[in-house]
Write a structure and sequence with these properties.
The complex is a heterodimer. Chain A contains 5 helices and 5 strands; from the N terminus they run ββαβββαααα. By secondary structure, chain A is of the alpha+beta class. Classes of the chains: A alpha+beta, B alpha+beta. Chain B: Keywords: Molybdenum, Oxidoreductase.
Chain lengths: ~190, ~800
């Protein structure tokens, strides 16, 4: 059972296209509630609303899910990183992050990918400076932002190409080399 | 991402060593290295190594499906959540802990204090180093004598996070307050408040004097530095100061503990050092090592901060007390005030230089503030000298000394670079100043003196490290300098049109190590499946570095298979072979060599089976493209056919297993040449960094894309040291930073473009010629930027961070 903080109420959410009723405590932030329902791509790196790792689309706008009360999201439509692409068929932004070695520990990446998708939706051909401004409240400790910025610029090129030629992320779709949950180096709980 | 951890054994290194070193050690450290023929492959012979292979875990990471420790929450329906009561005073004795209100709260399962049965009273260090530990045992899991604002006093387990937090707030702690000291120079005074009685510390470090808060004193000398300083007219002395930097790993320290159905005490934890953590927990809780299982899932960055066993004892104690799984996830505020940080230091550099511009002596002294406890205090300070000084190993007289001092401030620890950033700032800033003062080109001045292939580095040895002298067998410094100069546009720098704007370029060199010389162990095992695929079990720890991918590439290069045919398991102390863990830039070099040996062991068995199936001599066979093929007949048999035959054959059968274990006395330095391009406004002191260029010799980059990422990330961390305040403290030593928006981590718009250049050399002691990469570019931006500002407007900033105000003040001073 999900564990709630404070008095629990039911809220209605549409998460990645699925309508659902979830229990949320008055003290719970939206990131906690989404994570409790399995959306672990919503990451929590700060004490609320400063690192960008929990970014999701809420009614089309990018928000840090950890920075808002879950009850305030009642009735909204939420899209998380899980709605973008699958391991076998990545979104062009995700594919560009992979191909440009923009991912190290990966903890900030779902939030960065969400922000990059939002940028390219509104500005399909951004300058480097515009990409940096878009990512300005996404904290990344591993990469120095160099390769993420290059990845977003690369994704912009791929997506512009996509408009004229139907394509995926710019690389042939392949079976993910190690995509199966059962073979992940999960490290934990392998005695389950 | 790791940190260095070399261990000067004592403070007794003396000049007399150098008299015997020259001849004797030459034989011990020959230039020629007995390298296996297959270790040195030309670029076009490499099938997997030095390819930009897709990172093993990337598809899971970009889709948000990868699991970090906190993501295991859902597997444990009866999970309890931990929170910690921490000291609110800088120094004192806890006289009472009133837990009654917390214990009466609904949903509170346990409240632990220093007196609780489940809480060990054993002294320990959280350092996460090898054994015997070169850090003092001066800590307790929960404390009655508190020494900084943040010291843990009590711990709570509750049904949910909010209740755990509320319970912590409901606990009343009473103190007898003691005098406190937060400045390391004040702490050195004999009248200063004393943090430890000597008798309170076990496993003390040589040179300690707790009466004046000195945790350790280390040093060593080659030649006669004082004589050299007396004998030359050009003697320069400069002093430098560095910030208290946070690791700022975006995944917070997180640990989940439970006891499973087989009575195994399991920790799923965000650590760099599963095996050291297991050993330290066994020591603390008096549980046999074999009964503890430490596993690490994906880790959201470490940078040295997760080498420390910062959180693990808390959930384990609570889990033992409640008989439930317990998750402890530090808050971001705790990350800044109660986890670990880089040691702030003051470093003095002195040199003696002849009229001809030859450096006759280098003398470095560091005063390191280790904070309330001593983990990594001595070893980090040692690396202030032992990493940067070998760059100038031709200099005949060299001395390094350091005092490591306790204050009532947050704990420090291992952090990427591990003392080298502090030493590199002092030495590379100093030499730049000397060159400019003597009218010499700063780059040419470095070129005349820097390390080369064939040199014998005696610096680590001078500090008492047995056998720590190194013969240099790979060095790409000259090429690093040349390519860096080209990339930054050194020779055709254009000045801005406006008279008040001045543009300058600064350079700094750096060397690091690759693993702790003589104090590493890595191991790996490869199991072949009947379909010709493999399981690689390796203790080497991927904390976001891409180590799993590097291991795959090394194994695939040997086995002649596709990387996709190998499954990596790392790391789980019940399953994966022993490894010291991810620190000291050791993973690719040490654990990677263990993987190579394991793959070669498996390959030998595969070739035997190939010989049998092809009916050809083993000596004619090789692996490649998923087959064993004959170099004479051209016939081949697939690895899958071999796998089935070995597992299910008619007459004899075998599970094809390869094992490898690696340790070495070697620790070859990687090298970096850093360039910074800056424009300074002389009216305001404001400056803009246009670009950072860093050229790195890491031997053969196993995966160039990942290596570039390491370099750029390290340079960003280094840039932060040059321009940010770090964790500032108030007068009581309380961290003034509680969340990312208050911490000066340069954002995407605040970070200049970083150009990374890989300069390939071949290091014969490393797997396929590799040496380390992740730390050396962490050391270089503060001196390069200080040098660039000096180049632009002629003033020198020695106290980090470099700010417009400091530059303006210096410019104003110069005018008056």
């Amino acid at each position: 059972m999900p564990k709630t903080g404070g008095n629990a109420v039911d809220i209605e959410l549409t998460i990645n296209g699925e309508r659902t009723t979830v229990e949320a405590g008055s003290a719970d932030d939206l990131a906690t509630v989404l994570r409790q329902h399995g959306y672990i791509g919503v990451k929590c790196g700060c004490d609320g609303g400063t690192c960008g790792a929990s970014k999701v689309f809420i009614d089309g706008e990018v928000r840090m899910a950890c920075g808002m009360a879950a009850t305030d999201a009642d009735g909204s439509e939420i899209r998380t990183v899980a709605a973008l692409g699958t391991q076998a068929d990545l979104h062009p932004v995700q594919q560009a992050f992979v191909d440009n070695f923009a991912v190290q520990c990966g903890f900030c990446i779902p939030g960065m990918v969400i922000q990059a998708v939002a940028l390219l939706d509104s500005n399909p051909d951004p300058t480097e400076q515009e990409v940096r401004e878009a990512l300005d409240d996404n904290v990344c400790r591993c990469t120095g932002y160099q390769k993420p910025v290059e990845a977003v610029l690369d994704a912009a090129g791929r997506m512009q190409g996509e408009q004229s030629v139907a394509a995926d992320g710019g690389r042939p779709v392949t079976v993910p080399p190690h995509g199966d949950e059962s073979t992940s180096c999960c490290g934990g709980g392998c005695d389950e | 991402m790791s940190n260095d951890d070399e261990t000067p054994k004592a403070d007794g290194g003396t000049a007399s060593q150098s008299e015997t070193v020259e001849d004797g050690r030459s034989e011990e450290h020959p230039l020629e290295w007995d390298e296996p023929e297959n270790n040195d492959k030309a670029p076009d012979e490499r099938d997997s190594v030095s390819h930009r292979t897709e990172k093993y875990d990337d598809r899971k990471l970009v889709t948000g499906q990868a699991k970090y420790t906190a993501d295991y929450e859902e597997r444990y329906p009866d999970l309890a959540y931990a929170a910690v009561v921490r000291s609110d005073i800088p120094h004192g004795h806890v006289t009472d802990i009133d837990t009654s209100a917390a214990e009466a709260m609904d949903g509170v399962d346990a409240v632990l204090t220093p007196e609780s049965d489940a809480v060990p009273d054993t002294k320990y260090t959280s350092a996460g180093q090898s054994y015997p530990e070169p850090s003092p045992w001066d800590m307790h899991v929960l404390n009655k004598h508190v020494r900084y604002i943040g010291d843990p006093i009590a711990a709570v387990a509750a049904e949910d996070r909010a209740t755990a937090t509320a319970a912590v707030e409901a606990i009343e702690v009473s103190y007898e307050e003691y005098d406190y000291v937060t400045d390391p120079e004040d702490a050195f005074d004999e009248d200063a408040p004393q943090l430890f009685e000597g008798s309170e510390v076990e496993n003390e470090i040589v040179g300690h004097d707790y009466d004046c808060n000195r945790m350790a004193h280390i040093g060593g000398e080659l030649g006669d530095v004082d004589a050299a300083l007396d004998g030359h007219t050009h003697v320069h002395e400069t002093e430098w100061e560095t910030i208290r930097q946070s690791h700022a790993n975006v995944e917070k320290h997180t640990s989940l503990a439970y006891t499973n159905e087989d009575d195994r005490h399991v920790l799923i934890t965000s650590t760099q050092v599963p095996n050291h953590t297991r050993r330290q927990l066994a020591h603390l809780f008096d549980i046999p090592i074999r009964d503890i299982r430490v596993t690490k899932p994906r880790v959201g960055g470490g940078f040295g901060g997760k080498q420390a066993m910062v959180v693990e004892p808390i959930p384990l104690a609570l889990s033992l007390a409640t008989d439930r799984p317990v998750l402890y996830e530090a808050s971001r505020e705790e990350e800044f005030y109660a986890m670990r940080s880089r040691h702030p230091m003051k470093v003095k550099a002195r040199t003696a230089v002849t009229d001809d511009g030859d450096i006759e002596a280098i003398d470095i002294y560091a005063l390191s503030n280790t904070g309330a406890y001593g983990s990594h205090g001595m070893t980090v300070a040692g690396n202030v000298g032992s990493k940067p000084m070998p760059l100038y190993s031709k200099v005949p007289n060299a001395r390094f000394e350091a005092d490591i001092v306790h204050t009532n401030t947050p704990q420090t620890g291992a952090m990427r670079g591990y003392g080298a950033p502090q030493g590199t700032l002092a030495l590379e800033g100093h030499l730049d100043e000397v060159a400019r003062d003597l009218g010499l080109d700063p780059i040419e001045f470095r070129r005349r003196h820097h390390m080369e292939v064939g040199d014998l580095d005696e610096i680590a040895g001078m500090m008492g490290g047995e056998g720590a002298n190194r013969r240099i067998r790979s060095c790409g410094l000259d090429e690093c300098i040349e390519r860096g100069k080209d990339a930054i546009g050194y020779d055709d720098l254009e000045q801005p049109d406006e008279d008040h704007l001045h543009r300058g370029i600064g350079m700094a060199l750096s060397a690091q190590g690759t693993g702790v010389a003589g104090d590493e162990l890595g191991a790996a095992q490869i199991m072949m499946n009947e379909d010709g695929s493999f399981h690689l079990q390796v203790g080497g720890v991927d904390i976001g570095t891409g180590a799993d991918t590097a291991f795959l590439q090394i194994a695939a290069e040997v086995l002649g298979c596709d990387e996709d045919d190998i499954i990596v398991k790392s790391s789980d102390t019940d399953v994966t072979p022993f490894d010291y863990g991810a620190y000291a830039s050791s993973t690719t070099y040490i654990s990677g060599m263990a993987v190579k040996k394991a793959a070669e062991d498996a390959k030998a068995r595969i070739l035997d089976w190939g010989a049998k199936l092809l009916d050809e001599p083993v000596g004619d066979l090789e692996t490649g493209d998923g087959t064993v093929y004959s170099e004479t007949s051209g016939d081949s048999v697939t690895l899958e056919d071999i796998g089935y035959e070995a597992a299910y054959g008619d007459d004899e059968r075998e599970h094809i297993l390869g094992k490898g274990t690696h340790c070495t006395e070697e620790s070859p330095p990687p090298f970096a040449a850093q360039f910074a391009d800056v424009t300074v406004d002389e009216t305001t002191g404001e400056f803009e960094v246009h670009k950072l260029v860093v050229a790195v010799d890491c031997g053969v980059a196993i995966n160039p894309g990942m290596a570039e990422g390491q370099i750029e990330g390290a340079n960003h961390m280094s840039y932060e040291m040059a321009v940010s305040d770090g964790i500032t403290l108030d007068e009581k030593g309380r961290a003034e930073v509680a969340d990312f928006d208050e911490y000066g981590l340069p954002s995407a718009t605040e970070t200049p473009p970083i150009e990374s250049i890989l300069v390939e050399t071949h290091e014969p002691t490393g797997p396929f010629g590799a040496k380390s990469v992740a730390e050396v570019p962490t050391n270089t931006v503060p001196p390069a930027l200080s040098n660039a500002v000096r180049d632009a407007v002629g003033v020198r900033i020695r106290e980090m961070p470099i700010t417009a105000e400091k530059i303006k003040t210096k410019l104003d001073e110069r005018e008056t």
